[in-house]
Amino acid sequence: MINVQKVLSNSELFSGLSVNSLSRVEGRLKPASFARNVVICREGDDGDSMYIIVSGLVTVSSDMGWGQRELARKGPGEVFGEMALISNDVRSATVRAVEDTECLELDRAGFDDLLDGDPALAQRIAKIMTRRFSTLVHRTSTELLGAYRALTFALANLTESRDPETGAHLERTRHYCVLLAELLSEDDRYRDQITDEFIDGLFQAAPLHDIGKVAIPDAILFKPGGLIEGEFERMKSHTSIGATMMERVIRQSGADLFRIAYKICLYHHERWDGTGYPTGIAGTDIPLEARIMAIADVYDALRSRRVYKDSIDESASIDLLKGGIGTQFDPEIAAVMIEHIGRFEEIYLTYQDEKTGGA
Ligand SMILES: [Fe+2]
Ligand SMILES: [Fe+2]
After folding, report:
1. Distance from the CA of 235 to the center of ligand 2, in angstroms?
2. How much distance in Å is there from the Cα of 196 to the middle of ligand 2?
3. Residues paired with 61 in a beta bridge
4. CB contact at 8 A, 293 and 264
5. Into which CATH architecture does domain 144-350 fall?
6. Among 7, 203, 262, 284, fewest CB within 10 Å belongs to which?
7. pLDDT tens, 133-190?
8. pTM for this model (two decimals)
């Protein structure tokens, strides 16, 4: 003999209700038996009942696009099918009996009657729904953000397969950029622009700076020695090609990350004095993200051993940075980098790999 009140008071949905409320629920329940392997609810069907498991075991699974994924197993005292009933929507999952399973079924009419007559039950359901919804939103947004970041870095690593530049270079430059941005943000003049979102976007977007190189032919990209005029022009187009790629992404997703990536791709070879490429803009017309990227990229190229040159040591690299102040680099950003050069060196030494390559 099933002790229905005990089953109800052990279930998430009905625990904590008064004896009167439980009796009212009990009066509406009907026994339902399902043999092993029977599908009790099917994803996409109308949800017109919920079930409380008295004995047995069920699996809850969902179609992920690539196949069924088991989300949960439920046993005695647990409830399923309530989401569709509460939200008046179709089933969001398929429930199958793993063993012969005994349930108590509550249909829509009974459920609506109970809700109308029992504010405590209505309140309890509202609490459960809020808790589930916020857990779901948190989990979904964390998963999405992780996937989005991993995909962005995987995309950036495409340049590694098309260019001798290394993954370690991408790691180092993103860390130099963040450090520069953090140091600059201590200055009142930058505080409004360099927010936490700006820094996070810069960290995610920096590895995409040379993504346009995927479209440069091997004969140019891997050519030993100098490039001739037409080849150099073609090589320079990696900036606008990368920007066009980012523009397409922005059309699909307005995320700030890609707006920052667009500016970095297009302007990271511009120079403070206006003699850079591809547009020749100068000074603060060059977006801050790109001015930061430009010096981070050059510093790493100086310090790294490449196929055509040895590594340039720290003090010679500083001299070269100083030589570029006001011509190649934003004087304020260069000054901050030189002042804290030890911290950039730490990053350089932290992220190393076996491969070395060209800028
Ligand atoms: Fe570049
Ligand atoms: Fe680079």
Report:
1. 13
2. 24
3. 70, 94
4. yes
5. Orthogonal Bundle (1.10)
6. 284
7. 787 777 777 777 777 777 777 777 777 666 656 778 889 999 999 999 999 999 999 9
8. 0.65
